[in-house]
Design brief:
Keywords: Membrane, Transmembrane, Transmembrane helix. This protein is mainly α. The chain contains 6 helices and no strands. The two termini are about 35 Å apart.
Length: about 200
């Protein structure tokens, strides 16, 4: 048997075993997928808005704000843009795959479910990646905002460590809640439809 015959035999086996998705099932699947895409668009534009707002706030003319303060915050915001760009490039791949009209087979849905699970981890990492930025911002604020009474070294260390602990825990909870509310419930609907296809 030559290579072409092997390929044809393989393709025949795959097409025989792969259940096709009916029009009714396809419509059921498209609804949660469209909700996910809509939420991804909303999250992308709201993140862009927040970053632009951050740049605007940093450079509002405030006479008493030293240049170093504004410069450090600007560098911090540019670093955040780089991190956000990396994660959104991953999310954009999923967004593009959701838009693919060729999602007609059980295998393609299984692949999509794998991508959802992977992106859930990306999402958690995305939220937790803001902890160092939170700490840096706190350090900049402590250093540059004048205090009535100078802060002791112990107070500065306590403030930064407690903020890190609270920030890490808070961002973890926020990421879990946010993902569950905006994506998780729709992913579960697709999982249910996938299990119906197995029967």
């Amino acid at each position: 048997m030559n290579i072409d015959e092997l390929k044809n035999a393989w393709n025949d086996d795959v097409s025989d075993e792969t259940p096709q998705i009916s029009t009714e099932q396809s419509q059921k699947i498209n609804l949660p997928l469209e909700k996910i895409r809509k939420n991804m668009r909303m999250e992308f534009w709201s993140t862009v808005g927040v970053l632009l707002f951050g740049f605007a706030v940093v450079w509002i003319p405030v006479p008493e704000a030293p240049f170093k303060f504004k410069f450090y915050l600007t560098v911090l915001l540019f670093s955040m843009v780089i991190v956000v760009s990396f994660f959104f490039s991953k999310f954009f791949k999923l967004y593009r795959d959701i838009s693919n009209p060729m999602m007609k087979t059980y295998e393609s849905l299984q692949d999509l479910m794998f991508q959802f699970k992977l992106n859930e981890q990306y999402y958690l990492s995305f939220m937790l990646s803001f902890v160092p930025f939170l700490v840096c911002e706190l350090i900049i604020v402590i250093e540059f905002i004048p205090h009535r009474v100078p802060l002791s070294d112990l107070k500065i260390a306590t403030t930064i460590i407690s903020s890190l602990a609270i920030g890490l825990f808070g961002l973890f909870l926020l990421a879990k809640y946010w993902y569950k509310s905006f994506y998780g419930k729709y992913v579960r609907k697709i999982e249910q439809l996938l299990s119906e296809l197995q029967k």
